[in-house]
Amino acid sequence: MTRLAGKVAVVTGAASGIGEAIARRLVREGAFVAVCDLDGHRGPEVAAALEQEESGAQFFSLDVSQEEQVRSVLQEIADRYQKIDIMVNNAGIGKAGTVLEQTEAEWDAMMSVNAKGAFFGCKYAVRQMLMQKDRGSIINIASVAGMVGVLNRAGYCASKAAIVGLTKSVASDFAEAGIRVNAISPGTVDSPWIQKILAGQPEPEVARSQMEQRQPIGRMGTPEEIAHLVCFLASDEASFITGSNYVADGGLTAR
């Protein structure tokens, strides 16, 4: 469990769900993790728990939709720890709606956090990695919603599809420089976001059962299963992999 010993990792949206699981797994593999999130309560709690591990962690307040914040925080991390080896652009939001129902404000919010947040994360991680002898790995968390038309999720699908396209572009531009860039497209993962959606249904347990039955594998994924894949892509075991979009959806898009 030391595949990432001595590495410095940045994880956005790391205060809960998939992001928290990623941060925990990277620390267990020996990386120091910068826990980045807007949640000023839960974020420091996650970092404090991970600080007990040998490699450690620290919380950084970050709104990924603000370019100056992303630039400043990544610069602070690089200055303090001398490098950034792993950048995980995980922060994201979702709002339900067809194109008839989605408001411009909702569309702009999802594009700002999901697509623009990944763009800023890639931009300033690449800038730092180009100055390092050991370049680094960038992992963008997209979604199967960026690959297929999910009902009632117009803006969300568009923003996640943008992340997949961005990943391939950045990977192509900087492959020769030794920077690897990949995406992961999770399917339905039993995260706080899904739990919130289910809690808003008239019969939450019935809705959960229906959601699970839609998965060919017979259940939802777990945040830890996505974290395993992030760890692999961040490690030297994936040294020949760049520009790829890994689908982790329990077979959902295979049907």
Walk me through the structure.
The mean pLDDT is 96. The two termini are 35 Å apart. It contains 8 helices and 7 strands. 44% of the residues lie in helices and 15% in strands. It has a 7-stranded parallel sheet, sandwiched between helices. It has one domain: Rossmann fold (3-Layer(aba) Sandwich). α2 links the parallel β2 (32-37) and β3 (57-61). With 255 residues, the chain is an alpha/beta fold. The protein has helices at residues 17-28, 42-50, 67-81, 104-129, 154-174, 192-199, 204-213, 223-234, and strands spanning 8-12, 32-37, 57-61, 86-89, 136-141, 179-186, 245-248.
Concise overview:
The chain has a single domain, classed as 3-Layer(aba) Sandwich (Rossmann fold). Helices cover 44% and strands 15% of the residues.
The CATH architecture name reads 3-Layer(aba) Sandwich
Number of helices: 8
Number of strands: 7
Shape: globular
- Domains (count): 1
Secondary structural class: alpha/beta
CATH homologous superfamily placement: NAD(P)-binding Rossmann-like Domain
Average pLDDT level: 96
Low-confidence stretches: none
What's the arrangement of strands in the largest beta sheet? 3-2-1-4-5-6-7
Q: SSE order, as H and E?
A: EHEHEHEHEHEHHHE
Q: Compute the CA-based radius of gyration.
A: 17 Å
Termini distance? Answer: 35 Å
Q: What summary fits the major beta sheet?
A: 7 strands, parallel
**What would the CATH topology be?**
Rossmann fold
- Return the CATH class: Alpha Beta
Share of helix among residues? 40-55%
Strand content: 5-15%
Keywords: Oxidoreductase
Protein name: SDR family oxidoreductase
InterPro entries: NAD(P)-bd_dom_sf, Sc_DH/Rdtase_CS, SDR_DHRS6-like, SDR_fam
Pfam families: adh_short_C2 (PF13561)
